[in-house]
Design goal:
Elements (H helix, E strand, L loop, with lengths): L1 H10 L5 H19 L3 E2 L4 H9 L10 E14 L5 E20 L5 E28 L8 E3 L4 H6 L1 E4 L2 H7 L2 H11 L6 E13 L17 H9 L5 H20 L17
Antiparallel strand pairs: 1-2, 2-3, 3-4, 4-6, 4-7, 5-6
Helix pairs in contact: 1-2, 1-7, 2-7, 6-8
């Protein structure tokens, strides 16, 4: 990757400036992904959308052409170091609007307008299992609704859980504060966990962006240093922090093993 940057930045003076910028951005982005074990993969986007739609309500969108058209897979680790799968995606769909108009001669014309939309997010595994929905785009489809004492949290999100007791034990003040801090990085956030898999979706398209993405440069020494160093990815790191917090909270919901009965004292034989 470093060699490609050097060749493009110094060895192709006739290349278009914009194309060179895009290439450098791509190389730096790939370097940051490789540092975290993330890689782009090819999947049947239509089939994957149908699979995820069965589990997560955020994929119930559009009239036609629904597909997962971009996918990056890897892992995230919880506080105990246990690995969990992560699939970063772009979801595209088309909305169809039919209309009619009448021209100056009184003839009616039917028109069809198709508009493509996008959502982004991650589908992750989580153990132990968790049942929770937190959304600012829909009313969660969960057995019970829940509210917290946080005004900032309540003004933005609606919550659904398996039971009131679970919601109270799960959404502690520290968990709620983590949601608030994570939410500052995303727009139109929607979280839905059901069992050992969850989906966190949003309208932003820069989950895997580097913190220094806007600090562009053609200096070869700087480019070499950026490729070789581990870049900060603020949104991905904020999302991972939220996942770790939820994983730790889910651990606290698990029933604790009964202590072993005490061993009775035995009198020594003479």
């Amino acid at each position: 990757a470093a060699l490609l940057v050097v060749l493009l930045a110094g060895g192709l003076p006739v290349a278009a400036f914009a194309a060179r910028r895009r290439f450098i951005d791509t190389v730096l982005g790939q370097a940051a992904m490789l540092d975290r074990g993330l890689s782009a993969v090819q999947r049947d986007g239509r089939a994957l959308w149908r699979d995820w739609r069965e589990r997560f309500p955020d994929f119930e969108r559009g009239d036609e052409s629904q597909s997962i058209d971009r996918l990056v897979e890897g892992e995230w680790t919880d506080e105990a170091g246990r690995p969990h799968t992560m699939a970063c995606y772009r979801f595209s769909w088309v909305e169809v609007q039919h209309s009619s108009r009448t021209d100056a001669d009184g003839k009616q014309h039917d028109e069809t307008q198709r508009t493509t939309h996008y959502r982004h997010g991650v589908v992750v595994s989580l153990s132990p299992p968790l049942t929770l929905a937190v959304s600012e785009v829909r009313k969660p489809k969960m057995p019970v609704a829940w509210s917290t004492a946080s005004i900032e949290f309540g003004e933005r999100w609606r919550v659904g859980a398996a039971s009131e007791m679970q919601a109270a034990r799960l959404l502690t003040p520290s968990v709620v504060q983590t949601f608030v801090e994570t939410g500052r990085h995303f727009r139109a956030l929607d979280l839905h966990f059901a069992g050992e898999q969850g989906c966190i979706s949003f309208s932003d398209d820069d989950l895997l962006a580097r913190a220094d993405a806007r600090q562009r440069t053609d200096r070869l020494d700087d480019l070499r240093w950026r490729v070789r160093s581990t870049a900060t990815m603020p949104k991905l790191e904020a999302l991972t922090t939220l996942l770790r917090t939820l994983c730790d909270a889910a651990d606290g919901l698990q029933p604790r093993a009964e202590p072993a009965p005490p061993i009775p004292n035995r009198k020594a034989f003479p």
